Every structure is written in C-alpha cells, then in structure tokens.
Predict the structure of Bifunctional epoxide hydrolase 2.
Amino acid sequence: MYKHQIKMLVESGYRVVALDMLGYGQSAAPSKESFYTYKRISSDIDVLLKKFVGVDKAVFLAHDWGSMFMWHIAKYHPSIVDGLISLCVPIYSSPSTPVPILDGARVARSLVQNKNPYTNYQISLKKSDNKVLDTSIQDFLEAFLQEDPSCLERLSKASPYRGIVENFRQVKCIHKLAVDNQMLQYMLDQFAKSGTRGPTNYYRTAALNLIESQRQPPGVEITQPTLYVRKATSLH
C-alpha cells in the first residue's frame, strides 16, 4: 500500500519497517477480540521492535487504526517512541466510560445530535456477520476505495442498523476507484488469506480497551515530538 512512500523514505536515508496490522495481510489473524486491544498490540510492537527489528526506539508513522494504536504505544510503552507522525487521526483522550460504539442506539442518537454521522459504518462493522462479509469483500473494498468522496460519505451516513453489505447495496456509486486494478487485486488476495474477522474485531474492543485504560495511572502525557497531518476536507 505504501510502496511509493517507503521508497522516498529509504532514498532519504531512513530505515523503514512496514507492518501489516494484526488480522491483515501476512500477519496472524486470531479470532478472539482480546488480541486486538490497544494494550495488547502495543506490547506486541514493543517486543517486535526490540527482538526482531533490533532497535530500542523508533519514529512511528501511521494512519487510521494504525494511528490509534500509535498514540497508545506512546502511552503504554513511551520508552520505544522517538517521535510520532499521524495522518488524519488526532489523539483522543481515554474515556472514563465505555465509548458509544458499544451501544448502537446510543451511538445513533449521539451522532444525530452532533450532526456527525460519519462513523455509522463502524457500528455496522462491529455487528457484521463475517461469513457474509467474507463473500462480499470486493463490494466492501470498492465502496471504501471510491475516488469520489461523496460515495464514502453516503455509506458513512447509511443506517447503522443494517448490515454493512446491505448498506453497500443501498449506496449508488460510479465505480471509479482511487486505486488501480493491480492494487485492488492485491487487496482481494490479502483478504482471501484470513477473511474479515480479524479486521472487524478492532470495532469490538471498546469495553476491553476501557478496562485496560482504567488500570493505567491517570495523566499520561506524550512528550515526544509529534506531527499531525490532515487534509482540509478530511472528516477528522
């Protein structure tokens, strides 16, 4: 996915390690949700960096779910963080009560009240039937990879009470993708290896993340150099 960026960084003199997140691509894909919490994966990264990459610290560059985990790596294992760069996802403070994604009805009310329904799809993914989703993975990817951002916007605003596949069928888009056919086929091949259970587990870990967060000392502050990058039209 990031081959062009990796090439530029290497040519600039950096050593680059690009990881598949747990559940994706070449990584393992355990079915239990407890493997996908912020604390668990932060500990995995700590071990990976020291034992397999062979360094004590690194600059972390991440996007989307990767950014969420990057912020928590700085919380749970600050000694391995030399710097942080996040694309599109700012840092969020740890909640004192379960985050709304645990309760579909409460999420829907909250999103409507705040006029920000762009995370409805997260509820659909949390509740998704992975056996159904596994057979519709091309629809899934084509919906999320549309060049026209209004397609994803319509998908994001679709009802969180329908399944994610049903929402794909409700969203009418011109199928012009932001990636070429070679990249799309690569993604399809990667999903074919382990399915969608692992990736959708990230949307099912809110309660586990809350419990782990509450066991940590309050007031953890990120002191490492940090850069946040966003588009002017970003939903974040």
Observations:
- The longest helix spans residues 38-53.
- Residues 182 and 188 are 10 Å apart (CA to CA).
- The beta strands are 58-63, 81-87, 226-229.
- The first strand starts at residue 58 and ends at 63.
